[in-house]
Amino acid sequence: MKWTNKEELTMESKLNELLAKRRSIYALGDQVNVQPEEIFDLVKTTVRNSPSAFNSQTVRAVVLFNQSSDKVWDIVEETLQKIVKDPAAFQKTKKKIASFRAGYGTILYLTDTETVHKLEKQFPSYAANFGPWAEQAIGGAQQAVWAALAEQGIGASLQHYNPLIDDAIHEAFNLPASWQLRAEMPFGSIEAPAGKKDYLAESDVFKLIN
């Protein structure tokens, strides 16, 4: 169908409203009036509903609360203290890590590399793509969970201290060796709003071809 009325092209999307609400929140608190089990169920449902190539379901998620959540950021701090030699720079790093520790919980996002390797052998013609496809899957799951948390008024951000902390995280939480850590998401109550978000010029990003 060819549209002739420009007003008919105007579409509203509650999803886009929700995606706009999803922001990187760095000032987190633990004042969340939702039980850990409810958040865990939300994460499970959201990840299960996120797409993956060949329905490979390579995304793994570990949801941590209380001392377990704090342990993630203790590991990050201890690891970076060995790397960041300048005391002043480390104090800034320590303050940033403390803001993550102050939240209500942490989600670890991982990729099951065993599944990836099985698919590479099963479908050799596509072997080079299963790694990137797994990254697409985990990115989609992260965005979906992030938006789902935002819908509940819960703030979050996405951090990437892997691979520096991989071994310590696996040991601390007894995770399977095939689960490769890809990101860490601290979440909690929003104690301060996100900053202004800038966008690239539309002409640099989008093309409409009829």
UniProtKB/TrEMBL annotation:
GO biological process: cellular response to oxidative stress
Cross-referenced Pfam families: Nitroreductase (PF00881)
Gene Ontology terms for molecular function: oxidoreductase activity
Keywords noted in UniProt: Cytoplasm, Oxidoreductase
Annotated GO CC locations: cytoplasm
Ranges for domain Nitroreductase: 20-188
InterPro entries linked: Frm2/Hbn1 (IPR033877), Nitroreductase (IPR029479), Nitroreductase-like (IPR000415)
Subcellular location: Cytoplasm
Highest taxon of the lineage: Bacteria
Protein's UniProt name: Nitroreductase family protein
